[in-house]
């Protein structure tokens, strides 16, 4: 069985973090530069949400929102579910699917 920590060691520890007032356009540029599909939205130490490529398509593009003015706090997924490093990947996948 694989753990979350084993997956993260393969993927790498870097996580892109930005603030809730970041625009969708700015977030897309950060994601493209880092070659990732999401950014974590934080205010100080508090995780407020996550903005994913899917959020961009469904909550921004499909609704005709302006990427230059729409802020992440308007379209991010929240709350964020988390897990521990020693959690089993298959158990976490089951929780996320549910």
Summarize the structure.
This protein has 98 residues and is of the alpha+beta class.
Task: Walk me through the structure.
By secondary structure, the chain is α+β, with helices and mostly antiparallel strands. The chain contains 5 helices and 3 strands, in the order αβαββααα. Helix 2 (24-34) links the parallel strand 1 and strand 2. The radius of gyration is 15 Å and the shape is elongated. The model has no long low-confidence stretch (mean pLDDT 92).
Provide the fold topology.
Elements: H1 4-11, E1 17-18, H2 24-34, E2 38-43, E3 46-52, H3 53-61, H4 72-75, H5 89-97
Key terms for this structure?
single chain; 98 residues; alpha+beta; three-stranded mixed beta sheet; 3 strands; elongated
- Please tally the β strands and state the result: 3
Helix content: 40-55%
Structural class of the secondary structure composition? alpha+beta
Query: What fraction strand?
Result: 15-25%
Biggest sheet strand order reads: 1-2-3
Report the oligomer.
single chain
| Number of separate helices | 5
